[in-house]
Each structure stands twice: as structure tokens, then as C-alpha cells.
Amino acid sequence: MASHVKPDIILYDLACTKSVSFSPVVWRIRLMLNYKNIPYKTIFLEFPDIEPTLKELGLVPVETSSGSKYTVPAIQHVPTNTYIMDSLPIAQFLESTYPDPPVPLTSELGREIETKARGVLGKAIYSSVMPREIRILSPRSQEYFRRTREASLGHRLEDLLDGDKEDQVWDGVSEVLGAVGDLIRTHNADGPFVLGARPSYTDFFIAGSFQSTRVVDEGVFQRITKYPGYREVYEACLPYMEKNN
Hints:
Layout: E1 9-14, H1 24-36, E2 40-45, H2 50-56, E3 62-64, E4 67-69, E5 74-77, E6 82-85, H3 87-97, H4 108-128, H5 130-133, H6 139-153, H7 165-184, H8 201-216, H9 218-224, H10 230-237
């Protein structure tokens, strides 16, 4: 049955041909919205439509190491007509505006996990997910994705999967992936989440990355979650993934 509750949040997400959310950074916010039971609706944007759409809304591009850019997630808070872009500022806004149930946005353990995971998981996902991501994009987004990513890479996306290059990357990060998994399980006696019984933003960071990977390619998802700790967090977050479009 369709919901008739007026949304508090309009969530701008990245479109794919599977008609579900797949961006890892958007999933962090979607998990938070679902966990807090905040009513929202989604507007999916194709890659080439992100900048013109968000610029028209009056948003200011975020600064990155490669320059300023428009990005999802972005939200409109309907009651105050407030627009915010990028996952961390959105998470901070949601936590201050909807504090119950609470989602700790940071912790010493969470920062360590996120920093190390970005390094090793980022490298593995870069090699395995990015060249496969193009397969779930529309023709317009495929053209944009290939043109921009290959300009940065200096070679074809498919070259990342040539021969045993992909296996070499995974072999190179295997030990550190295991060590990060041990960190994730620090409080496993108290519950399945990083801090124990209740989720934090770090859990949504982990689960969102894995759900994104799973939408793109089940085989890569299975490869990542074979390490102890990762699947436990992912499965604990499954109730907050039911609304995915």
C-alpha cells in the first residue's frame, strides 16, 4: 500500500537501471532516515543531471581534492525549505533535527575504522566495483561515467579487470581487511554493531558501502563480506534497508 504521509525530506539520489539506491554515500543517509523513521521521498538523478539540478536548487558545490563539484546525496528539508548537500553535513542536520533515536556520528573507534576502511576498501572497490558500475547505468549516464572516469584513469575502465590485476589488488589488502574486521568486532559481546547494541554512523558507512557493492555485483559483495565482522554489521542493518527507492 502506498504511503500518504507527507515527506519531511526530499532525498536526491543517483539513478541506475535497477531502480533502487546504489550510491554508498547516499545509502549512509538513507539508512539514517530509515532508522529514525523520518518520512521522505526520493528523486533519482542521472549522472549528467546532478550538477544542473542541484545548481538550480541554489546549492553551493563542495570542495574536493579534485576541485569543486555538485554531488549526491542532497536533501530538501520540507518544513524549513532547507537544502543541504553531501553526506556528513546532512547527517549532522538530521541528528540535530531528529535526535531520537540517536545515531552517534563519531567515536574514536569509528574514526579508526572509517579511516582504515577508506584506504583498503576504497582501493579494492575502486578496482572491482567501478568498472562494473557502468553496467547498471542508463546510456546517458554510461557516456558521462566512462568519459569522466577514463579521463581520470588514463585508460579504459575494463583495463582494471584485465588478467589477474583485480586478484592482485585483493591479495594486497587482504591482511588489512582482516585487521579492520577485528576492529569492527571490538564490542561484539554487546551487540552486532561497531559500538555494541545500537547503530552508529560508522555502521551505516560500512553497510552502505556493502549494499552499494551488492547492487552492482553480487560476487564482489561476497568477496568483501567473507571477512569476519563485515557481514555481521551488514546483516544487522538489513531492517533499515527495506526502503530502497
